[in-house]
């Protein structure tokens, strides 16, 4: 994964079926202990049901989850 503040990565984690209950697309397994970006999940206006990894320089130069649109276009990670 590129270490860049300008690169977000889709992960396959979403709460499409039940708001606030994030599950993995492939397995349907509920996600536990999600390392969210400060202020997320915030139920982004419109389609804010999918989680992506976002590089955060403000939070210690780490990757954290942020919610956003499922139709947004980003790079992605596959198992």
Automatic annotation (TrEMBL):
<dbReference type="InterPro" id="IPR001304">
    <property type="entry name" value="C-type_lectin-like"/>
</dbReference>
<feature type="domain" description="C-type lectin">
    <location>
        <begin position="1"/>
        <end position="79"/>
    </location>
</feature>
<dbReference type="Pfam" id="PF00059">
    <property type="entry name" value="Lectin_C"/>
</dbReference>
<dbReference type="InterPro" id="IPR016186">
    <property type="entry name" value="C-type_lectin-like/link_sf"/>
</dbReference>
<dbReference type="InterPro" id="IPR016187">
    <property type="entry name" value="CTDL_fold"/>
</dbReference>
<protein>
    <recommendedName>
        <fullName>C-type lectin domain-containing protein</fullName>
    </recommendedName>
</protein>
